[in-house]
Amino acid sequence: MASPLLLLPILMAPVVFAAVLAFLVRPRPVRIPIKGRHVFITGGSSGIGLALARLAAAEGAHVSILARRAAHLQEARDAIRLATGVDVAIFSADVRDADAVAKAVEAAGPVDVLVCNHGVFTPQELEKQDLEEVRFMVEVNLMGTFNLIKAALPTMKQRTKVTGLPASIAIMSSQAGQHRRRPDLTNIIAGSSGGMKADDVAKKALDGIKSSRFIVPCNFEGTMLSIATAGLSPQSSFLTALAEVLGAGFMRFMGLCFQWNWFSSIENWHSKKKGL
Ligand SMILES: NC(=O)c1ccc[n+]([C@@H]2O[C@H](COP(=O)([O-])OP(=O)(O)OC[C@H]3O[C@@H](n4cnc5c(N)ncnc54)[C@H](OP(=O)(O)O)[C@@H]3O)[C@@H](O)[C@H]2O)c1
User: Fold this and answer.
1) 204 lines ligand 1 (CB under 6 A)
2) Is 3 inside any structural domain?
3) Tens digit of pLDDT for each residue in 216-230?
4) Residues 69, 169: one domain?
5) Does 74 sit in the ligand 1 pocket, CB within 6 Å?
6) Does residue 239 sit in helix, strand or coil?
7) How far is CA 226 from CA 26, 116, 230, 231, 248, in A?
8) Are residues 248 and 191 in the same domain?
């Protein structure tokens, strides 16, 4: 029988490895306070952005929301006031318009937490998709985010020097958003993961922002993806780093299982189409 002393190195190995990761991980974890700070949320008139604005207002943040349609912004402000008793500032601008974004950000005042949550999604099979639609998505989702960060960053940096508190920029992305025009196959593949409520996504996003996480997955598939694709991303939690190091191979295996499932669905879909 093996001596307990021989088991010691095996038992100690994970502890030593975790200690090495605790030394390695950068940047160091920080808390991003929300209370009393200026949280600026784009796409704050609807869905996840509205839920985030409501949550941040309820936690005592000064909230500004930006979207294109003024009437929807006013409705959002009324809904947030009704739910929390707090008034949020509203700004009407198209994120594609760099000047309009700069003016809105200037009028809102220095930002502590910028949430680039605006997003458009016009799904279509590539052969049928109009390139103007692709350009529109790139202009809103990508260039709009650059416009915002460029407008807000200088005063955010100055403000952190004055307050001594860390600031944060969060960018919302999507695995597969819901859309009435989504192609059949996208629906089938996206159907393998359950949808989430805007309030639940907002809660996870705000918790992730407050604990300064680089990637904030909202569900199991998102967590899997974030571990499988962690690559060169920064990681401030040594425990998550441990999960990434130990789980990467297994997550790749799980990814291949998902692919196998999706390919079976695609093959079934094609054979059904041929049979019609
Ligand atoms: N819903 C999903 O299934 C899903 C899944 C995963 C991730 N996401 C991501 O989460 C974010 C929010 O999604 P959501 O479904 O909550 O969105 P949503 O309800 O469709 O709301 C989009 C918001 O963005 C604003 N917006 C759109 N284009 C804009 C522009 N050019 N300039 C300024 N504001 C603009 C809209 O207001 P106006 O139209 O008035 O401008 C609205 O406030 C998006 O980034 C999306 O990709 C969504």
Assistant:
1) no
2) no
3) 999 888 888 898 889
4) yes
5) no
6) helix
7) 17, 20, 6, 9, 10
8) no
